[in-house]
Every structure is written in C-alpha cells, then in structure tokens.
Amino acid sequence: MPTTIPLNGTRLNIRLIEVELSKLRLDPDNPRLHSAYLTHELPSRPSEKQIAQVLEQLPEFQPLLDSLMRNQGCHQLPLVTDDFRVLEGNRRVTAQRKLLTEHPKSDQWKMITIQQLVKKISPEQEKALRAKFHLESILPWDSLSVLTEYLGVAEREGPDYLAQMLGRYRPQIEPLLIAGRCVRRYSQDYPQSYGAELLWVLVGLCGVRQIEPQIAFSRTERCIYTDQDDERPTSQPYSLEKIMKWLAEGRFTKAYQDKQRQYMIKAAQVPRLFREVREAGEESLSHFLGDDGSLAKAIAFLRDGYSSSHRSKVHALQQTHKYMDVLNRMEAIRREDNPELHREALACYHRLAQLLNLKQKEASNVH
Q1: Contact 88/5 with Cβ under 8 angstroms?
Q2: Both 23 and 111 in a single domain?
Q3: pLDDT tens digits, residue range 260-313?
C-alpha cells in the first residue's frame, strides 16, 4: 500500500518493495561525496566502483557493516527513485553489497527492502530530498560535504531559508556562504591541488571556525569577506585570487626549518597566525610574501628574530587592538560629565604618549 513523505509542503507517494540488490544504482550526487569531488578524489562522472570505494573509506562505514551483520539487514530502508537510483541510503547499499561479496553462497544479502518513489520527480525535488535526509540525519559526516550542502540549500531555497533552518539571522551565516563559494572556486581553479587540509585553510580565513557538530565563527580571525574580487572591502587586504595562489604554493601550510628548530603550521592555526603576522608589520609580513616565503617562516621570525622586549610590546599592542572596536563605539568622555572616567582615560592617553614619544615630536614640530 503506497504511503507518502513530506517535502516542502507537498507529499510524495512511495511504496515498500523487495528487490534484488543488483538492480540498485548508487547516486553520484550523494551529499556525502561532496568533499571527494572537491579534493578530486572522484572524477566528475564516477563509476559505481569508484563511488563504492569512497564510501567504504568513510570512518562510519565499518560500524555500519557491523550493524548490518548483527541485525541481519537494514532497519532504515533506502529511498530509491522510480528507476532504482539510491537517493538516500547509499552507504547501506554499499555495505550490503560488500557482505554479499564476502558471503556469495548465502541468500541473506541478495535481496533488499526499499522505499521507492512511485513517480518520477524533478531534479530540484531530488536535491531537496537529499538535503532533507542528510542535513536532518543525526549520523556524522565530513564537514566539507556539509558546508557544500548548506551552500546548495541557500542557492536553491535562498539564504533566508538556510538561516531559518540553522536558527541564525541572515547576516550571521554570510561567512558560511562565502566559505562554500571560495572552496568551490579553489577546487575548480586548482584541480591539481589535492587535500582537504588546504580547503580548510580557506574556510578558516573566511571566519568559519567549525561546522560540525555546531557552526562556530571567529570575527577576529576573518580575512576573506567576499569571494568577488571587484567588490572587495578594505577589511580584505588581499584578493581571493592571490590568497588561493598562496594556498596552492603551500605558503600557509609548508614547514620551515631554521638553525634552531622546525616550525609546523596546522590548518586550524592558519587564520590566527596569519592575523598575527599581518598585525606585526611589514618586516614580518615580508617573510611570508617573499619568493621563498611561508607563514611558518614569518612565525619563526616573530618568535626568534626579535628581542624579548620587542615581542612583549607586540603582544601588548595585539591585546590593545582587541579593544579598539569597543573604544571606537564609545562617545567622547567629557570631564564635566564624568570626572572619574575622564581621569582614567587621560591616564591611558599619557601612557600612550610616553610610549610613542609624542611630546618630543610635538616640540620638534613647533621649532
């Protein structure tokens, strides 16, 4: 007897049937494969064997295989199109195929019960179904694939829809969308550059600290504010094209060896350390921008190339910089309105005047 599943205000008719496992086809548009396409582990038109190899490498595949063995089959039935393409449940189908290969004489794994759509649906409905099952699933999957699926939802349904789905305001998710577009652009422009680590550097520079299990952002470590170079604000000092070139060259992640030690940079450290190098000034930045430059080389210079006195001053200025946004939002402090606050602010000013030698400079200008 047909039943239905809800989708964006409509209901799609499905039926439960038992079919031969060999009749099913794996879905090349499975959202869990997004990161494999981004890192070029999969070609644009993969074979069933190539898809299965990627799915079998997922960390959750072996526990799924063990679960099928214990339960003698699937508890959650795969969702399949009218022409037997697996929209949801590709890992389960792949796991059962593996069990069938390992136990060819057993009839246990030759048949499978599925939920099949009664009628053909549109490509847009297929995308919405994939997103519904994967984004609402409690099972873990890799964050780059989740990011790509979030971007897909925003492009199909609009950013406001995605913001509502994530329980955020529209402006709050902008770094997430920019990160998704940057990752996609880098994957297209640098197909010879492999590895999810490099893509995570881009995501971090967009101000996205983590996606799973919960989205977290970092305003202070954000360096990329748009993926459109002709619309770049002053807060984004370098074009995305240049940042991607540095990324492909390995400037952000390659190690540096000096006479004392080797400096290693992890992908998660790049946004914070790159901000530190930029704030330290032109001399430290030159160790990153030079012909043989790297972030590790610039950090080595910051750690060992300066005196301890200089490093302590840099640290103090970096801490001060964190409070500049607060100070810039404050109204003028007038002595007649609040003498105590005015006295405290004046003391801060005098200390800065001493550090910057302002009195001597003013005197020299007068003469």
Answers
A1: no
A2: yes
A3: 788 999 999 999 999 999 988 888 899 999 988 999 999 988 887 654 455 566
Query: Cβ atoms within 10 A of the Cβ of 364, count?
Result: 9
Q: What is the pLDDT of residues 165-222, one digit of tens each?
A: 898 999 999 999 999 999 999 999 998 866 888 999 999 999 999 998 889 999 999 9
Is residue 27 scored above 50 in pLDDT?
A: yes
Residues with Cβ within 8 Å of 112's Cβ and at least 6 positions away in sequence, in order, are 18, 19, 20, 21, 24, 73, 74, 78, 93, 96
**H/E element, 268:** none
| CB neighbour list of residue 63: distance below 8 Å, 6 or more residues apart | none
Q: How far apart are CA 247 and CA 254, in angstroms?
A: 10
| pLDDT over 50 at 97, yes or no | yes
In angstroms, rounded to a whole number, what is the distance separating the alpha carbons of residues 331 and 53?
Answer: 62
- For 216-278, strand residue ranges (E) read 216-217, 256-257, 262-263
Q: Report d(CA 91, CA 107) in Å as an integer.
A: 20
Question: CA angle, corner 112, sides to 106 and 114, nearest 5?
Answer: 175
CA distance 354 to 290: 35
Q: How many CB atoms lie within 10 A of CB 340?
A: 9
Residues 88 and 165 in one domain: no
Q: Which residues have a Cβ under 8 Å from the Cβ of 17 and sit 6 or more positions away?
A: 113, 114, 116
Quote the pLDDT of residue 199. 93
Q: Where do we find the tokens 């290969």? A: 101
In a domain, 251, yes or no: no
| Token reading at 111 | 């048949």
CA atoms within 13 A on the CB side of 243: 29
Q: Which has the closest alpha carbon to 7: 131, 118, 113, 114?
A: 131
Number of domains comprising the chain: 4
Q: Is the pTM of this model over 0.85?
A: no
CA angle 130, 134, 137 (to 5 degrees): 145
Print the domain residue range for 183. Answer: 143-244
